Predict the 3D structure of the following.
Amino acid sequence: MLTTDAIKFFRTKTKLAEVAGVSQAAVSRWVKIGFIPQGSAAILSSASLGALNFDRGFYQRLKSERMRQRKAKREGALIHENHP
């Protein structure tokens, strides 16, 4: 779930934090990374009665990508997008 979509739906970061049960600092971190963590996304999807889509596949792809990056880093491979 993208942070921008959730903020648009709940209108303010304060309301978003309140509904998700997190601090405003947590919402600020979400804005920085661009998406809402899986557990909070599920809560927000339920609170919005499905208006905000909780896509499990997104989080599975994210986890797979992070694991790939960690493995590459351990193996000493370059993982920067501008290097082959």
